[in-house]
Each structure stands twice: as C-alpha cells, then as structure tokens.
Amino acid sequence: MDAREFYAQIDQADDELAEVSRSLMDIFRDAHHLNHIFAKLARDAEKIKDEEKREKFCSVLSYLSGRLYEIGDQCCDISTEIDMALSCDFGELVDEAEEMAKE
Predict the structure, then answer these.
(1) What does the pLDDT look like over 61-98, one tens digit per residue?
(2) Residues whose CB falls within 8 Å of the CB of residue 54, separated by 6 or more in sequence, listed in order
C-alpha cells in the first residue's frame, strides 16, 4: 500500500469516527427528550386511582425515565472521549499520514 492510499484510509476512518461521535450525540439528545416524556408520564400516572395500576405505571415509567437519562449521559461521555481522541492522538496520525502522502 502506498502512502496516498494509506492516508485515504486514515482520513476515511477519521470521518467515520467523527460520524459515530455525532450519532452518539443524537442519541444523547433523543434519550434526554424521551427521559422528559417518560418522567411526565410517570407524574401523570400518579393520578391513577387504582393503587396497584398506579404503582405499576409509576414504577415502569420512572424506571424508563431514569435509564434513558443514564443512557443519554453515557452516549455523551463516549462522544466526548471520541472527540478528544480525534483532536489529540488520532489527529496527529491523520496529519502525519497526510505529510507522508505528500512526499
């Protein structure tokens, strides 16, 4: 493999990794949006008169709300780690590969 082909593959990997980071941030936003929806539904479920049904609805909806919040935060953290890797370690490799391709 010559240096230009190597650089092209490195550059493509850089682009694809950046896309993964963007996708994770989309999941973060969507998960937090759904977190708010489920939290509101859990509050609304507290008005159910039947105690057994109320507890079931509140329990499930609150659980989903909390898990979506956690999942969103995890996606945000992973996206941040990817961005840091792209801007530091991997970014240097992309620059070096580009220089090699020019030589």
Answers:
(1) 999 999 999 999 999 999 999 998 888 777 777 778 88
(2) 45, 46, 47, 48
Residue whose token pair is 């935060």: 73
Q: How many CB atoms lie within 10 A of CB 37?
A: 14
For the chain, how many residues are written? 103
Q: How far apart are CA 96 and CA 47, in angstroms?
A: 62
Reference 17, options 99, 91, 82, 103; nearest CA is: 82
Q: How far is CA 92 from the centre of its chain?
A: 24
Question: For the chain, what percent of residues have pLDDT higher than 70?
Answer: 99
Residue 12 tokens read as 């493509």
